[in-house]
Amino acid sequence: MSIPQKVVSFKEAEQLFRDGMTIMFGGFMGAGTPAGLVRALLANGANNLTMIGNDTAFPESGVGPLIVNKRVRKLIVSHIGTNPETGRQMLANEIEVQLVPQGTLIEQIRCGGAGLGGVLTPTGVGTIVEEGKTKLTFDGVEYLVERPLRADIAIIKAKKADRIGNLVYERAARNFNPLIALAADLVIAEVDELVETGEIDPDVVITPGALVDKIVLAGRN
Amino acid sequence: MSIPQKVVSFKEAEQLFRDGMTIMFGGFMGAGTPAGLVRALLANGANNLTMIGNDTAFPESGVGPLIVNKRVRKLIVSHIGTNPETGRQMLANEIEVQLVPQGTLIEQIRCGGAGLGGVLTPTGVGTIVEEGKTKLTFDGVEYLVERPLRADIAIIKAKKADRIGNLVYERAARNFNPLIALAADLVIAEVDELVETGEIDPDVVITPGALVDKIVLAGRN
Amino acid sequence: MQAKEIIARRVALELKDGYVVNLGIGLPTLIPNYLPSGINITLQSENGFLGLGPLNGQEPLPNLVNAGGQPCGMVPGGSFFDSAMSFALIRGGHVDATVLGGLQVDRCGNLANWMIPGKMVPGMGGAMDLVTGARHVIIAMEHCTKEGNSKILKQCSLPLTCRSKVHMIVTEMAVFRVDNGLVLEEVGPGVSVEDVRKCTESDFRISTSCRQMAI
Amino acid sequence: MQAKEIIARRVALELKDGYVVNLGIGLPTLIPNYLPSGINITLQSENGFLGLGPLNGQEPLPNLVNAGGQPCGMVPGGSFFDSAMSFALIRGGHVDATVLGGLQVDRCGNLANWMIPGKMVPGMGGAMDLVTGARHVIIAMEHCTKEGNSKILKQCSLPLTCRSKVHMIVTEMAVFRVDNGLVLEEVGPGVSVEDVRKCTESDFRISTSCRQMAI
User: Fold this and answer.
1) For testing the chain C interface, which of A24, A95, A102 should be mutated: the one with the most C CBs within 10 Å?
2) The CATH classification of domain C3-212, taken from the options 3.40.50.2000, 3.20.20.10, 3.40.1080.10, 3.20.20.70
3) Residues C131-143 pLDDT 10s
4) Which of A107, A170, A187, D208 has the fewest C-beta atoms under 10 angstroms from its C-beta?
């Protein structure tokens, strides 16, 4: 019997990133973003990234440092207002920013992870969000067809993992993390604590280990 | 300050059901179906019900007794094979049965609860499930547009509630319950245990109390 | 009384006991301070929880933050969930009221509050879903821009956040209900209907029960 | 060896170490008994969990049941979730293989296994999602009906569960790969290619590496 060895060092995780990759990240204004994996991405030097997540946080938190260091070619996010550098690069045409309503963005990610071809949402109807999208009307209500999003790698922050990758989150740091775990070809979770398999009550697991490929321990090398 | 009094007796809960209502129920082959609320529905005498849930379990479990006692006019379910009485009534045209793929059914309920106009699913393409449905093709893949479902009342089984209705579930009894809690005008939860507000760790709550209108204690009157 | 306090006090009166409420960042966050006694609301935070509360001098926790990323507290009975659940609650009508700021609102109930092209593009965040899904959409904002221009217009000129979703506009000068155009329901302290007219680009009807704000 | 055991033993060889597998009720549930040593799989149960295991003489728990509603066990490291998550896993390609029974399979990889009109209509349950989303779809069934008719047809006559989703058919007589029609890869113990032809209504090609099942 073989137990997959999912726990790796940041150095090993660093090798997984490549130029031009699409990367989904957890976090909301930095809370729930894996700071160690963001540092690994910086250290790796990968460039021309497409980043998908809620927001670009602040220049020194969340994925902010990747923006400041000009590693990102394209952003798909709902909010950039707290990171002035994102706005500056956008207005200077140095970065492509696709702004998506938060509830739509999370559904697009969920669709990408759940094998759905899209959802119908009333959000954005009558605004510039609807441009170029298929619209359907049912019972007199207009909906936009919003299509799935997927990524090459998802970087996740969780509170605790067991050795097979079952994850639990803390407070408001959950946000996008459980959804991006479904929607990427490779899922790397940075966790504060690692326990033995079987130590997490199966009823409180939020992200099943089957979705998690690699685990790094926050604060270790 | 007013704390809503959500905890009621089965007798009080019984008064909430009416002839012709649409009722969503939790449970999978009976596990996670609120047996006390099914008995209350029987005692109330409500008739011509439309029931939405995964399956009709067995004649003596789940919602089986409501079928056996001919209270149901229409079923929207994924499976009826374990309750011969459902099949008999269907073949005799005594009950209308709409069979829906399980993954589609749960998404339709989720859409009804999440304000979405539908989802695009590849499931059922090329089968009789696609009959009468809008089809969309993206990138050469065909999808069915599956529309939302909602109900007048959802009857839920949980392991534990606090007084404001936060719910946790046990093992495989979770199934449809957290989703139907979003998709009905009135949500009644039958629970094995009631604790004071604040006693459930906010990180492990599955159904937030804001979704739950009434709580009944299993095994009480 | 300062404009912001007038607005926050007045909006507070719209929130009913038991409401689940989502408050935008900025001015709307002041509202809970002015809830009448006996009125208990539950605050929803779009980053994924119910039961947002004040810090009340407690030590901030790194993962207990509001939708603006600032440390906050939580009341007993709160619950945390992921963003898909958070927006299922918002879009699905499980939030009774949302109070948001606005750059412009017009007489059709259109709102613009997420970008000024070429200048300020913070993004819509959760705002488009909130105005689409919340049962009551209240815009809380100062009546005019810093330059003294009306923010209540015949037609919004900035990119919209939503079309025809605003139910009520509360400023320091006026309360408007949106009902086939704007209906002036109340005027602010020391403000006349004529004052409101001067500061409002949009036309509006005057409610038969139009009165002074009772704050 | 009985037909069912042959089939279960043969399917077990298709499951790779680390696979997440969903097994239909009936015959497929026998498969884990025959996994080669060193091969560890995780069983997904569509009623909402990963880590399904045998009861192993433990006392049954009322809420620990498999997708057939029967008491089961759970391995360390299991996890429970709701039905939306369960089918996100299934439809989203997170299940490496599913093994289901069949009433009919045809040379296009079409499957019929959920109803016989006017006679037996159990419903599709999770089957349509499983065949749509699982990365490998294996149909495990006896080669012929009790009446001796082939279940492997040119074209299914019963209502379909899916169109063109089946990758492999394992019976006690044969292993077929679906690849622009059926390709006979293996024959069962003591069975000749001619025997398979006689019992199979569909035409099929014979793999250049066609051999006896190594079970």
Assistant:
1) A102
2) 3.40.1080.10
3) 999 999 999 999 9
4) D208
